[in-house]
């Protein structure tokens, strides 16, 4: 076991954002964390990352080094001309050797001396993963990593996640892409302030656990892109 989330609740005043959430994360899992806006997904991530303290309950990390990959819109804004290698070295405590190895693991070593802002959205997310891996992370936490990324780059990015998972990396990914998540992950956790579903993706029924408008929107996306959409 790498993470043990035990009866975690988070309250802001009288508002309950998370209500007695419990789950365990085991080594080698690929978890898709889904739920509507306001479900508490980001709050749970912040608690797992140690950025906020739960009102009640505990989160235990067992020999776990977390690597966080934010949404692309929260990355470097281009005001500083920083290279790809320099970005990854931030996660490697300044070690060029570690940063280079991490870039190689995400197939971005050829871009080491390009400016980060010159990369496509999908390439930027690869670099963000390299930064996390350079810090020896054994659990990757990704917050809607393909938001604002074109369809072709999404497919390449998901293929990278499949590769990293096959290499033994534990992955927790927040996503609104219900159909994609179901094809990609080994376990689905559906959250709406509390855990509504926790189990294999093939048994998850979006219409049962998600609000109707949410489910219909993603069903429309599924038909628009077809079964080959990744």
Give the assembly state of these chains.
Answer: single chain
Largest sheet: 6 strands, mixed
By DSSP (H or I, 4+ residues per run), the number of helices equals 8
Number of strands: 9
Distance between the termini: 29 Å
The CATH architecture classification of the largest domain is 3-Layer(aba) Sandwich
Mean pLDDT: 86
Helix content: 25-40%
Give the count of structural domains. 2
Structure description:
- The longest helix is centred in the last third of the chain and has 16 residues, at 151-166.
- The protein has eight helices and nine strands.
- Helix 5 links the parallel strand 6 and strand 7 (170-174).
- Helix 4 packs parallel to helix 5.
- The radius of gyration is 18 Å and the shape is globular.
- Helices cover 35% and strands 25% of the residues.
- It is α/β, with parallel strands linked by helices.
- The strands form two sheets. The protein has a six-stranded mixed β-sheet, with helices on both faces. A three-stranded antiparallel β-sheet has the order 2-1-4, covered by helices on one side.
- It has two domains: 3-64 and 139-225, 3-Layer(aba) Sandwich (Rossmann fold), CATH 3.40.50; 81-137.
Q: What characteristics describe this protein?
A:
3-stranded antiparallel β-sheet; 6-stranded mixed β-sheet; globular; 9 strands; 230 residues; Rossmann fold; alpha/beta
Summarize the structure.
By secondary structure, this protein is α/β, with parallel strands linked by helices. 35% of the residues lie in helices and 25% in strands. It has two domains: 149 residues, P-loop containing nucleotide triphosphate hydrolases (Rossmann fold); 57 residues.
